[in-house]
Amino acid sequence: MIKTCKVIYFFLSVLFSICVTIQFLFAGMAIFMDPGFWANHVLFIHIFGFSLPLLMLIFAIFGKMPKWIFYELVIIFVFIFGMYFTANGGRLLSWIGAIHPLVGLCLLAISIVNVYHSFQLIKRNNGGMKHGK
C-alpha cells in the first residue's frame, strides 16, 4: 500500500504541474486572444488549486513520504495562498497584483521540483527492491 500511495502521489504531482501550466495558458489566451478566457483562468484554479495538493498530502501521509516532501507541500500551499492574495490584493494596491505572475512562476517551479523529487523517490525504492539494497 505504501508503494501504491507513493505512485499515486507522483501522478497527482504531475497532474498539479500540468494544471498550473494550463493556468498560464489561460492567462496568455486572455491577454493575447480573448479576455473571456479570464473566466476559465479563475474557474480552473477553484477546481484544482486546493483539491490536488490536499489529495497529495493524504497520499504523502499514507505513503510515509520523507519530511522534505511535506516541506515542498507546505511551500506549494503558501504559493497557492500567495496567488489568491496577489490576485485579490491587486484591487487595493496595483503592485501586489503585478506580483501575481511571479508567484505563479514560483508555484510552477516548486511543483516541477516536487514531480522530480517524487519520481526519484519511486525510482530509488524500485531500484532498491530489485537489487536488494
What this model shows, in words?
This protein is an all-alpha fold and 133 residues long. It has one domain (2-130). It contains five helices and no strands. The model is unreliable at 128-133 (pLDDT under 50).
**Main β sheet profile:** none
Global shape: elongated
Low-confidence stretches: 128-133
Structural class assignment:
mainly alpha
- Between the first and last Cα atoms, what is the distance in angstroms? 20 Å
Instruction: Please trace the helix and strand order, writing H or E for each element.
Output: HHHHH
Any chance you could write out the topology, listing elements then pairs?
Elements: H1 2-32, H2 37-48, H3 51-62, H4 67-89, H5 94-130
Summary keywords:
mainly alpha, elongated, disordered C terminus
Brief description of this entry?
This protein is mainly alpha-helical.
